[in-house]
Amino acid sequence: MTALPSHPAATAGSVARPVDRILADVHSWPLFAGPVIHTRALAATDDVETFELWLEQDRSVRSVVLERRTSEVPTALVFRAGADGPATVVRYRDDLAGAVDIETTASNGTVTGTTASLEIVVRRILTELAESAALPGGPGAWVYTFEDVVRTHGSVADVFEFLRRLELWPGGIAHVHEVDYDEDDDGVQTVSTTVLGDDGTRHRIPSIRLCLGQARVVYKPLTVPPIARAHLGQWSVEQHADSVTITGRHTIALDPAGVRQVLGADATVEAATRLVRSALGKHSLDTLDAAKSFAENRLRSHDPALSWDRLGTS
């Protein structure tokens, strides 16, 4: 079994290098910075990488463009509210404190309210990334991913309809008691879900969901149990020759202090991941099975003569 990692010695090299690594791994930011909901790579050259980031601030979501300018020393992170909009420029100094310089620039020389608001959320992101970089054993030691897969003969469109339309979930998924949500024109959903615990207690969980295309939903709860720092979820649907697969993928960033709080001072990473897999995996499979049933009921309603034997049990 793997014991919980111990904190490395605090030297300039051991602190700065993890900060550099986590700043370079933009796709890991949603796990280690609360405001970052999702990232998408847009383009890359030898000198510049460009990403789209979805950021949450006060239950509102905005899409920003991030440029990593690796040709500059130190590397510059340029956050823009739009492709050509005002920018917040960040440079980390390579010293023991992992200090950060932030400059706010605007094409017209005026710092707008949008730019100032972006600077606030950027400072929070950088602070949380630096804290995560210093986790005992490095941030990667605390990340756990698992997948559940269900096959159906229903259509991709019907499966995705269930995954997207959250009003269908209460009564369709055993642990979901109530859902309130709003969806904007870009498929961004601001959600509040009341979940039933095994003991009958109710827990209200706010989250942000992004409906990407016609076959994928990614989401991030804004609150998580003490054992975790973050949870990223994804529902995806894929058409095959004779069936459709529905996949639930979950990535959890464990919290060292929370693991010890929940499981005791002698807790192991394996024990923490087993707990997460058992609790979250049950809810994941319940959701996948409900999406499968919805799609197959819809299929049968179109062809009442279709038997469940012909649908199969896969």
From TrEMBL:
InterPro entries reported in the protein's UniProt record: START-like_dom_sf
The record's SUPFAM superfamilies line, in alphabetical order, gives: Bet v1-like (SSF55961)
Q: Please give the superkingdom of this protein's source.
A: Bacteria
Tell me what this protein is called.
Answer: Aromatase
Q: Which species does this protein come from?
A: Nocardia aurea
What taxonomic lineage is listed for the species of origin?
Bacteria, Bacillati, Actinomycetota, Actinomycetes, Mycobacteriales
